[in-house]
Design a protein that fits this description.
Largest sheet: 6 strands, mixed
Order of helices and strands: EHEHEEEEEHEHHEHEHEE
Helix content: 10-25%
Radius of gyration: 17 Å
Oligomer: single chain
Number of helices: 7
DNA sequence: ATGGTGGATTTTCCA
């Protein structure tokens, strides 16, 4: 199974780039974040015409997540399922084949110390608890998405500039460790121990042109998936060219 | 400390 995660920064604005990616990379499952639209205006027909099924959880203007699959998408759960009032569409989970997929768009947090920063840390705890409830022993589990957090300074083009800044602060990294603490591993690091690999480049500072990015989009996988991984790459071609998202997709190949 | 660009919906919010 080939599985991808991609923050598309509007599914409607990005539709041509998404269709090109699906055709070129030929994944089996794709987790999208920042779809930025209500389910009723999600471009379902265009994707179905290209052979895809979709499960969506959207809202107007902000956030929004979706799972695309070549095959059947079953047992769809929207949100963190913990009884907490949450108007932000940031999580969708489903069974696809023998893999349980959790697709998350983690709160950005704006800046260290801001209200949204504290909200982010609390939200990540809720995400960890949700994943702990969804995980079962020996199961193939993939938790992927835009985590808006770097694991360590290898994921940062300029660690001095970003030291203890948003996306790089110690509390955020500890919150991300809450997920690896459940026994999940960073799929990308199985194949790439060195730094300098990024998934997001800021539009505002022309980060792509400066080759100045961060690795904040991740695929965290349970031991049976980790053992079966044969590759994990960042699709830089999707970040290049006309009207790209500010994120590149992460693509993993799971044998069997 | 601030602004740069991009998307959605609007003259502003969020990233």
């Amino acid at each position: 199974m080939r599985i991808a995660t991609w923050n598309v920064n509007s599914v409607r604005a990005r539709l041509p780039r998404i269709l090109e990616f699906l055709e070129r990379v030929r994944p089996d499952v794709v987790c999208l974040q920042e779809t930025k639209c209500l389910d009723e205006v999600f471009p379902l027909e265009a994707l179905e015409e290209a052979g895809w099924s979709a499960a969506t959880s959207g809202q107007k203007t902000y956030n929004g997540v979706a799972i695309l699959a070549r095959g059947r998408i079953e047992d769809v759960v929207r949100g963190l399922d913990d009884g907490v009032e949450d108007p932000e569409a940031r999580v969708i989970s489903a069974q696809v084949g023998d893999v349980m997929v959790v697709n998350a768009y983690v709160v950005n947090g704006q800046q260290v110390g801001a209200d949204r920063y504290h909200y982010k840390l609390g939200w990540m705890l809720r995400l960890r608890d949700f994943v702990a409830r969804r995980a079962s022993q020996g199961e193939k589990l993939v938790v992927c998405g835009d985590f808006n957090v770097t694991f360590d300074d290898r994921d940062v083009h300029d660690p001095l500039l970003w030291h203890e800044k948003i996306l790089c602060s110690t509390p955020e990294r500890q919150a991300l460790s809450g997920l690896t603490g459940l026994g999940l591993k960073d799929a990308f690091r199985k194949f790439h121990e060195e730094g300098g690999h990024y998934t997001w480049w800021d539009f505002r500072t022309r980060g792509w042109q400066r080759k100045a990015g961060l690795r904040i989009d991740h695929m965290l996988v349970s031991p049976p998936v980790y053992e079966a991984l044969t590759s994990c790459t960042i699709d830089l071609a999707a970040r290049d060219g006309l009207q790209p998202s500010d994120h590149a997709p992460v693509v993993a190949e799971i044998q069997g």
